[in-house]
UniProtKB/TrEMBL annotation:
Its EC number is 3.6.4.13. This is ATP-dependent RNA helicase. Gene3D superfamilies: P-loop containing nucleotide triphosphate hydrolases (3.40.50.300). Residues 1-40, 493-552, 598-626, 692-797 are annotated as: Disordered. InterPro entries: DEAD/DEAH_box_helicase_dom (IPR011545), Helicase_ATP-bd (IPR014001), Helicase_C-like (IPR001650), P-loop_NTPase (IPR027417), RNA-helicase_DEAD-box_CS (IPR000629), RNA_helicase_DEAD_Q_motif (IPR014014), SPB4-like_CTE (IPR025313).
């Protein structure tokens, strides 16, 4: 492919003559094909047999493509004949060529040249996918003389502006394309012949709605439109938006038993939130030779776990990919992970979920529950591409299990239950705690990651699956190495919403109605892997391309899928992961995936079941979580005496610090009595402090209110995005998912200046504490200094009278304990 002005070679006249002959021959072949009834068409199996140009055939041969895949067989001929298409086929089934070949051929047959301007637009939701499509276009279009450009964000728009007007084909992300439409003088799409939307359902969803509508307004209505995705839209609204003309729906795998590749072995694992970190750690440690993609909900989680695990060295190279990275770094990581043959783990947000064709990925681990079934399918589809096999593992919280498993089952996704082998679980918690206490910046990142995850759960619309009020926040924080988690206002909001919901549910129940999530027949049975569809060649699997679609059509499909499940369509139980290491880490349930396998454990049910979700319960739990758990944090950490017996840290402190060295030799019963006494007093003091803090808060709130009343009613306005924010503008800042529910940029949810100020002060306090903590560890003379301060709280008999300790002193004690533990 050449740039405009590159000129044709010396053989131009000869080539033009040959081209002209070829074009007229192709036109007549395609004319005949278009006129023939669809079922009588002889579908080519090899690219050489297709009515396409020699240039394209040559490009395909050089790239190593000889035989067509199912989606290519179904889509190529109608697309070459000029039909609008809605193409749906499983992940990794070769959809990219199914639209690239028609793009090249349409322009070739219309004798498109550099003088004709922009003839084809290919829009992709992410930069990496655009890059990948562009690379493939360059390969198969190598012999053609069109100019092609890649327009993605993260680069200087000015540099692109110099070339963009001469391009015949553009591969782009929606934001950057719109930016050129708005800002580049002379940018003209009026002659556009073909528009392609790859991952069409994603591009047409709400996150990109405004941008895509604006783009379509700039395009001519007379054009060919090709839409492709593994989870295709059938929404009439979308089709009207795109002015499709009599589109042909290509769903090659619609009759298949599963919407995912057959060679993809899928399992889900139920674990509590606080077990996830250990799970991830253990997974990496037991899959050192595997190429793994780990999907997390938010950019901050990806950053945090990448930074933390990198320092802990699991023994496998780690990479991360998320939307907040610089473009150069993103591309470097993309190519790096592509080139890795084995033994590498990529932590990523959903930015890597669609379309990316990383070779030889062994495992896709979905550490956080995907938004919905299509999101699951796309993430899992990063492995088992084309004819390769692969494994997918989905981690579900007990509260997510019923809803997500039901949805996957309804969409015929053959995912089986697996359980962790406790013997192979390696804990990372203490290492994380030690790491975070050494690196305050990492601790801060951890707090943000924790908050971002909770926020992402809070913002999920499907409350039947995502219920932030059921999450054990403090325990989760501890498992990440955090001694405390930030207080988040949306958690209160979630509890309020839930309370309101449960009230209305009560009212509904009183009227004899039942909400869907309360329906008694929550599925417990798991589906199993299905036998290969005999009609599919080359190991291709069959799919239900619209699985999990959210519009009314999909409801229909889901109902049909449920019926199919009830009819026992699915085949024998899926083979468990073959690796010995996987066997070791997971105990796969091989026996029929019956009810017992997926039912939550009894204790899980009592904690996370509907009964536990009553409003008053939730409120009580929330309050408990919000409390500063100074005592709890300490109580979770044991210290050891010289004989190695575990002691409560306060007891140790009472022995060593408050009572002096001699007191450490007190009879055990007396020490225990004093400790109990001290604990009661500490509790009393804690209650007093809390009351004082509450009073102070009320006072501040009243002052704020008074101040606000005196101010102008017009607060700072909300600034909406310009719409030129490139593709990031269409994604949620945090999750890289469609920005259906864009969170504010600040994790700690500070809505007003006073709150922001309070947060700043809290942050300063945290930093001060962290500095203190560091000092405590590094300064050998420190023990003496502390001992000198603490006696202000000593009672006359040498015991620790916490009733006279200030909150600061209590904090110092806690830090002292942490310090002692770290040593
Ligand atoms: N006809 C073919 N012969 C051999 N390999 C092919 C053929 N078509 C596609 N491939 C290869 O199959 C892999 C998957 O193709 P592609 O990325 O187009 O899948 P996809 O259906 O677009 O997947 P996704 O839904 O994840 O975007 C790629 O590595 C591609 O090079």
């Amino acid at each position: 492919m050449k740039r405009p002005g590159g000129g044709l070679g010396k053989s131009q006249p000869k080539r033009t003559k040959r081209e002209a002959d070829e074009v007229s021959s192709l036109e007549s072949q395609l004319g005949e094909a278009a006129g023939a009834p669809a079922d009588s068409q002889d579908v080519a199996k090899r690219f050489d047999d297709l009515p396409i140009s020699e240039y394209t055939k040559e490009g395909l041969r050089e790239a190593g493509f000889t035989r067509l895949t199912a989606v290519q067989r179904a889509a190529l001929l109608p697309a070459l004949c000029g039909r609008d298409l809605l193409g749906a086929a499983k992940t990794g089934s070769g959809k990219t060529l199914a639209f690239l070949i028609p793009v090249l051929e349409v322009l070739y047959r219309r004798r498109w040249s550099s003088m004709d301007g922009l003839g084809a637009l290919i829009i992709s939701p992410t930069r990496e996918l655009a890059l990948q499509i562009f690379d493939e276009l360059r390969k198969v279009g190598k012999q053609h003389q069109f100019s092609a450009g890649l327009l993605i964000g993260g680069k200087q728009v000015k540099a692109e502006q110099q070339h963009v007007n001469g391009m015949n084909m553009l591969v782009c992300t929606p934001g950057r394309l719109l930016q050129h439409m708005d800002e580049t003088p002379g940018f003209d799409c009026s002659q556009l012949q073909v528009l392609v939307l790859d991952e069409a359902d994603r591009i047409l969803d709400m996150g990109f709605a405004q941008t895509v509508n604006a783009i379509i307004d700039n395009l001519p209505e007379e054009r060919q439109t090709l839409l492709f995705s593994a989870t295709q839209t059938k929404s009439v609204k979308d089709l009207v938006r795109l002015s499709l003309q009599d589109p042909q729906y290509i769903a090659v795998h619609a009759e298949a038993s599963a919407p995912t590749p057959l060679k993809l072995q899928q399992a889900f694992l139920v674990c509590s939130l606080e077990e996830k970190v250990d799970m991830l750690w253990s997974f990496l440690k037991t899959h050192l030779k595997s190429k793994v993609i780990v999907f997390m909900s938010t950019c901050k989680q990806v950053r945090f776990f990448h930074e933390a695990f990198k320092r802990l060295r699991p023994g496998v190279p780690l990479r991360c990919l998320h939307g907040k990275m610089k473009q150069m770094k993103r591309m470097a990581v993309f190519y790096d992970f592509c080139e890795a043959k084995t033994g590498m783990a990529l932590f990523a947000t959903d930015i890597a979920a669609r379309g990316l064709d990383f070779p030889t990925v062994d495992w896709v681990l979905q550490m956080d529950c995907p938004e919905d079934v299509p999101a699951y399918i796309h993430r899992a589809g990063r492995t088992a591409r084309f004819v390769s096999g692969g494994h997918g593992l989905l981690m579900l919280l007990p509260s997510e299990q019923a809803g997500m498993v039901e949805a996957l089952k309804a969409a015929n996704v053959p995912v089986k239950s697996t359980r962790l082998n406790p013997a192979s679980l390696q804990s990372a918690t203490s290492a994380m705690q030690a790491l975070l206490s050494k690196h305050p910046e990492l601790k801060e990142l951890g707090e943000k990651a924790c908050a971002a995850y909770l926020r992402s759960v809070f913002l999920q619309p499907n409350k039947a699956v995502f219920d932030v009020t059921l999450l054990p926040v403090a325990e989760f924080g501890l498992s990440m190495g955090l001694s405390s988690v930030p207080q988040l206002r949306f958690m209160r909001q979630a509890a309020r919403q839930k309370q309101a919901g449960s009230k209305s549910r009560t009212t509904l129940s009183m009227h004899g109605q039942t909400r869907p999530e309360e329906a008694p027949d929550i599925a417990h049975a798991m589906v199993t892997d299905s036998p290969q569809d005999p009609a599919m060649p080359e190991g291709e699997a069959a799919t239900n391309g619209d699985a999990g679609d959210k519009d009314q059509h999909s409801l229909h499909d889901l109902a049909a899928a449920r019926a199919a499940m009830a009819d026992g369509v699915d085949g024998p139980a899926c083979q468990s992961a073959s690796d010995a290491e996987d066997e070791e880490l997971f105990r796969v349930h091989k026996s029929g995936f019956g009810a017992a396998e997926t039912v939550a454990e009894p204790d899980e049910q009592s904690t996370h079941g509907p009964a536990a979700a009553s409003a008053s319960d939730a409120q009580r739990k929330r309050k408990k979580r919000m409390r500063i758990k100074l005592k709890d944090a300490a109580a979770n950490r044991k210290v050891f005496d010289e004989e190695g017996s575990a002691l409560d840290p306060f007891e140790m402190l009472a022995r060593e610090e408050a009572m002096g060295k001699a007191a450490a030799d007190l009879p055990e019963t007396e020490a225990a009595a004093r400790f109990a006494q001290a604990a009661v007093a500490l509790k009393r003091k804690d209650a007093d402090d809390r009351a004082a803090v509450q009073a102070l808060k009320r006072q501040k709130k009243a002052a704020r209110k008074a101040k606000a009343q005196g101010q102008d009613e017009d607060g700072p306005g909300i600034q909406l995005g310009s719409g030129l924010g490139l593709e990031e503008g269409s994604c949620d800042d945090e999750t890289d998912r469609p920005s259906r529910h864009r969170p504010s940029s600040d994790d700690e949810d500070h809505a007003d200046p006073a709150e922001a100020e309070a947060a700043r002060q809290a942050a300063a306090r945290r930093l001060k504490l962290a500095a203190k903590e560091r000092k405590l560890r590094s300064d050998p003379a420190h023990a003496g200094m502390k001992a000198a301060r603490i006696p202000s709280g000593l009672s006359g008999n040498g015991g620790l009278d916490v009733g006279t300790l200030t909150l600061a002193d209590q904090e110092a004690i806690a830090l002292r304990i942490l310090g002692a533990q770290a040593r």
